[in-house]
């Protein structure tokens, strides 16, 4: 028994001595691999291709072996950035630096082709087949260019006029391109004059066809005042750019400006008059400084009772100028004028020193005001005004108030020393800034409620604003304002 124990002890000592000698004989570790050479590794990737070579003091080396997880310390594949990583083997360590970088992924689709340089085409134009596409990656690199195939394209119909969105789809990614399919293009003042002077169709005070899409290219176009016009024995009175044909869409392509000589009374107050359903005006610019009239009630665009489902989008309006002896102090750029307009969209416009005016019961008589939308507009020293005889631009019996969302306001209007009384009869004199106001001559009940105004303030992130409901003179008013 004693001999067996002695033998075992001798073996243990021999192994220990051999191991100690092995560690002492190791001079260093050499590590290599593509990840080491690159100096970086993609996030959530293991150190899978690193090899380690043991170099002994006598200059000999072992064969390369794979680095295993238990040899590595200091590496966290989930953490981005530079890391000091240590490999330990046979009692010797080697440290190197590696940077963990985000994984390169496909982030989008890019499509090219000469057709995409067009802002508009005429109806009947075939879509070409020479598009190319690339995938865009998160590291700003792109894949090799490839041909777009027909099955990747949707949304274009050469037989339908108006704005269309051509969609390219590949492997779950989209590239969208807006194109206007036009029936007609106006490129000169002479062409515009010919349109305005054609009075061959009764009440067609500007020569349009029903559902026609007309493009105006870059330039300044003068709207001429007609002193009088009669059709079929019916006098139409003074008119300007009077749109009385259903379904007309007008698109400005480039820098398009309209001027006018309006400024009288009645229809003459407005540079553009919409008096038909389903009208679109998109991408034009109008400036009160360019209007030749001197009527303080001058308006750039008026939507009449017949103008249901009108769209005013992507336009630029400017005011607050002096023409002759009349100062247009934040005038009515877009004016909705009657109860017959139950649907409207005012989207993506810029109002500077002027107002969006929703008046005379616009939207009244509808049970749902969700189709009355004012969104994505910017107001610089401008406001949204809602006024009317029996309501404030909406029907008090409607189940919803107009959708007013995602509008931005800077340089808000200021009311100085505004004298009013609250619902309890308390009189105050306040100076405050405001962005939206509603006025009624009827009662508080036809104004939006305190809760509705508070909800709007919260939904639109109007920090510092509050709802003020009061009576000033004969008018009941509601303001979204700040002191």
Can you put this structure into words, describing what you see?
The protein has 483 residues and is mainly beta. 10% of the residues lie in helices and 45% in strands. Strands 15, 16, 20, 22, 23, 25, 26, 30, 31, 33, 34, 36 and 37 form a 13-stranded parallel sheet that branches. A hairpin with a 7-residue loop joins β5 (72-73) and β6 (81-89). The longest helix has 24 residues, at 2-25.
List keywords for this structure.
483 residues; 4 helices; elongated; disordered N terminus
Parts with pLDDT < 50 across at least 5 consecutive residues: 1-21, 230-237, 389-398
Number of strands: 41
Structural class estimated from helices and strands:
mainly beta
- Fraction of residues in helices? under 10%
Mean pLDDT: 81
Q: Could you describe the largest sheet, including whether it forms a barrel?
A: 13 strands, parallel
Distance between the termini: 102 Å
Total number of helices: 4
Global Rg = 37 Å
- Described by the principal axes of the CA atoms, the overall outline is elongated
Percent in strands: 35-45%
What is this entry, summarized?
With 483 residues, this protein is mainly beta.
Describe the secondary-structure layout.
Blueprint: H1 2-25, E1 26-32, H2 34-38, E2 40-42, E3 51-56, E4 65-66, E5 72-73, E6 81-89, E7 92-101, E8 106-112, E9 120-122, E10 132-137, E11 146-147, E12 153-154, E13 162-170, E14 173-182, E15 184-186, H3 189-197, E16 213-223, E17 230-231, E18 234-235, E19 241-243, E20 249-260, E21 270-274, E22 280-282, E23 285-291, E24 299-303, E25 310-313, E26 316-318, E27 321-323, E28 326-328, E29 332-336, E30 344-347, E31 350-352, E32 355-358, E33 372-375, E34 378-380, E35 383-388, E36 403-405, E37 408-410, E38 413-421, E39 427-440, H4 450-459, E40 466-472, E41 475-482
Parallel strand pairs: 2-7, 9-14, 15-16, 16-20, 19-21, 20-22, 20-23, 21-24, 22-25, 23-26, 24-29, 25-30, 26-31, 29-32, 30-33, 31-34, 32-35, 33-36, 34-37, 35-39
Antiparallel strand pairs: 1-3, 3-4, 5-6, 6-7, 8-10, 10-11, 12-13, 13-14, 17-18, 27-28, 38-39, 39-41, 40-41
């Amino acid at each position: 028994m004693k001999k067996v124990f002695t033998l075992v002890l001798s073996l243990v000592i021999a192994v220990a001595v051999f191991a100690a000698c092995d560690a002492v004989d190791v001079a260093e570790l050499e590590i290599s691999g593509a990840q080491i050479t690159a100096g970086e590794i993609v996030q959530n990737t293991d150190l899978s291709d690193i090899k380690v070579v043991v170099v002994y003091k006598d200059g000999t080396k072992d064969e390369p072996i794979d680095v295993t997880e238990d040899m590595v310390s200091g590496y966290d594949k989930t953490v981005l950035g530079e890391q000091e990583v240590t490999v330990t083997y046979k009692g010797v360590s080697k440290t190197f630096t590696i940077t963990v970088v985000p994984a390169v992924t496909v982030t989008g689709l890019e499509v090219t082709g000469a057709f995409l340089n067009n802002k508009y085409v005429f109806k009947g134009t075939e879509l070409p087949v020479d598009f190319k596409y690339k995938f865009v990656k998160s590291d700003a690199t792109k894949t090799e260019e490839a041909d777009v195939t027909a099955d990747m394209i949707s949304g274009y119909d050469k037989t339908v006029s108006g704005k269309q969105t051509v969609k390219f789809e590949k492997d779950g990614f989209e590239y969208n391109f807006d194109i206007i399919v036009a029936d007609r293009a106006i490129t000169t003042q002479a062409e515009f004059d010919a349109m305005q002077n054609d009075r061959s169709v009764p009440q067609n005070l500007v020569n349009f066809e029903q559902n026609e899409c007309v493009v105006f290219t870059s330039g300044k176009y003068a709207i001429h005042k007609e002193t009088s016009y009669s059709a079929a024995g019916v006098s139409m009175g003074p008119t300007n750019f009077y749109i009385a044909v259903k379904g007309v869409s007008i698109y400005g392509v480039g820098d398009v400006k309209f001027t006018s000589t309006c400024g009288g009374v009645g229809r003459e107050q407005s540079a553009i008059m919409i008096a038909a359903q389903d009208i679109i005006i998109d991408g034009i610019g109008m400036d009160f400084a360019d209007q030749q009239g001197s009527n303080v009630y001058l308006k750039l665009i008026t939507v009449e009772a017949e103008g249901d489902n009108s769209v005013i989008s992507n336009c630029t309006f400017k005011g607050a100028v002096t023409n002759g002896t009349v100062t247009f102090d934040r005038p009515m750029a877009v004016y909705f004028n009657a109860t017959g307009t139950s649907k409207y969209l005012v989207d993506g416009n810029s109002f500077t020193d002027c107002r969006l005016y929703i008046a005379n019961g616009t939207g009244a008589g509808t049970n749902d005001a969700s189709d009355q939308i004012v969104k994505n507009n910017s107001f610089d020293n401008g406001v949204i005004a809602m006024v009317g005889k029996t309501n404030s631009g909406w029907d008090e019996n409607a189940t919803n108030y107009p959708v007013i969302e995602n509008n931005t306001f800077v340089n808000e209007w200021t009311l100085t020393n505004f004298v009013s009384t609250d619902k309890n009869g308390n009189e105050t004199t306040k100076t405050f800034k405001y962005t939206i106001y509603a006025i009624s001559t009827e009662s508080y009940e036809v104004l939006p409620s305190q809760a509705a105004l508070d909800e709007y303030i919260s939904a639109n992130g109007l920090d510092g604003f509050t709802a003020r409901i009061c009576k000033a003179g004969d008018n009941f008013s509601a303001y979204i304002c700040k002191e």
